[in-house]
Design a protein that fits this description.
Blueprint: H1 11-28, E1 30-34, H2 35-54, E2 59-69, E3 79-82, E4 85-88, E5 90-100, H3 102-114, E6 118-120, E7 133-135, H4 137-148, E8 157-164, E9 171-177
Antiparallel strand pairs: 1-9, 2-5, 3-4, 6-7, 8-9
Length: 178
């Protein structure tokens, strides 16, 4: 007897479906699916949340300085003459950067192995590339979801039954983050 449900699909189809459901659950916070799928997605989502909680604050912040070329109002680089040559003028900018510890980097890679990339589109529904942005799901897990559940020791999801589906009579449920 296997340790998981096969859900009537091949292994690649099943893996893709569960990855999609887990990504949508963590992105939206609530999804509607069948009861058996929900029980499988719950396992995946709870492991990812536990991983995010354990590695939430495991990074260091360092300050780096960068050289950036000066630009004028039209957007072209500012140049000045030195020793008979025209050279670009640079400004030095200091920026604080988070550097992951090795265990947090490993956790991030484990999350990326499960989660699909998510692209947010504008509210009006038109898919404009300029207005669309890619959501960094591991960062969302570390910053938002792990912060919400840091004092909880498990049970991050809830399954709420909503009745039988009209077409085939399958039990439908909402899976939501508590």
């Amino acid at each position: 007897m296997p340790g998981y449900r096969k859900l009537g699909r091949t292994s690649s189809q099943r893996k893709a479906m569960l990855r999609n459901l887990a990504t949508n659950l963590l992105y939206h916070g609530r999804i509607k699916t069948t009861e058996t799928r929900a029980k499988e997605v719950r396992k995946i989502a709870e492991k990812l949340i536990t991983l995010a909680i354990s590695e939430k604050d495991n990074f260091t912040e360092i300050t780096k300085s960068y050289k950036v070329p000066q630009k004028d109002s039209s957007g072209t680089r500012v140049r000045e003459e030195k020793d008979g040559k025209r050279v670009t003028v640079f400004d030095t900018i200091e920026r604080t950067v988070r550097v992951d510890s090795p265990s947090r980097l490993n956790a991030r890679r484990q999350m990326l192995a499960v989660l699909y990339p998510v692209t947010e589109v504008p509210a009006d529904g038109r898919k404009k590339r300029a207005e669309s942005k890619v959501v960094n799901m591991p960062e969302k897990l570390f910053n938002e979801i792990a912060a919400r559940y840091k004092d909880r020791t498990g049970g991050y999801t809830r399954i709420v039954k909503i009745g039988k589906r009209k077409g085939d009579g399958a039990e439908e449920v909402f899976v939501e983050l508590v």
